[in-house]
Design brief:
Elements (H helix, E strand, L loop, with lengths): L2 E7 L6 H10 L6 E6 L14 H7 L5 E4 L9 H13 L3 E4 L5 E2 L6 H39 L12 H12 L4 H8 L3 H9 L1 H11 L2
Parallel strand pairs: 1-2, 1-3, 3-4
Antiparallel strand pairs: 4-5
Helix pairs in contact: 3-4, 4-8, 5-6, 6-7, 7-8
């Protein structure tokens, strides 16, 4: 039984070393790392990625698949839910670094199965919604920059893309700004703005190239 860590590292996200360090700091002992670099979770489903495809052949019953978060599998609802359910049916345990969530097929109770599947669906839907919101915000930021000219960028955000994504994920799970502040180092006021106006926050990062 092995513990395999899978990372999808985009050019605007965390580095691979950072993701591994974060997992080890959370108490995971990793036997092997599988990573895709520069891959969009929106455009490429897991089975289409060179390294992600290896997981379907590599993982066996009893193995544990560790992810920083479910969005590393993808940003499309169907792709993520299909991949998670496939691995669960194969007897693979899926665990996340953020919030230490566990998804497996150990329960035979239909109510517990329903709760598990509902949580998987919610997280997959959240990943897709965040991706779509970011795309709209980026387009809005580009349009605004063209309208106002290069000199108008507003105040520079106090966070980068990886911190923003982490904050949105944690807030989306119902964590309050105070709790998320301890995880991200951002102020409560900043987190409230991100929570209430995520599109504006993402557009600001786009204007500043963050």
């Amino acid at each position: 039984m092995r513990t395999i860590f899978y990372a999808r590292v985009s050019t605007r996200d965390q580095t691979l070393d950072h993701q591994i360090t974060q997992a080890e700091a959370a108490g995971f002992t990793i036997d092997e790392v599988v990573a895709d670099h520069g891959i969009s979770g929106v455009k490429h489903k897991l089975s289409d990625r060179s390294e992600g495809r290896r997981l379907f052949d590599k993982l066996r019953s009893g193995d544990t698949l560790v992810l920083r978060w479910l969005d590393r599998l993808g940003r499309n609802y169907d792709d993520v839910t299909d991949a998670v359910r496939h691995f669960i049916r194969q007897g693979v345990i899926i665990r996340t670094v953020i919030n230490d969530m566990t998804f497996d097929g150990s329960t035979s109770d239909p109510v517990q199965q329903a709760v598990r599947d509902a949580m998987i669906a919610f997280l997959a839907a959240t990943a897709q919604a965040q991706a779509e919101a970011s795309k709209i915000a980026q387009q809005a930021g580009i349009a605004l920059a063209k309208t106002k000219g290069d000199r108008f960028r507003g105040r520079k955000p106090s966070y980068d893309r990886k911190t923003f994504d982490l904050a949105v994920s944690l807030l989306g799970l119902g964590n309050g700004p105070s709790i998320v502040s301890r995880e991200t180092g951002l102020s409560r006021q900043t987190l409230i703005r991100i929570r209430d106006e995520p599109d504006a926050a993402s557009a600001a990062m786009e204007r500043w190239g963050l």
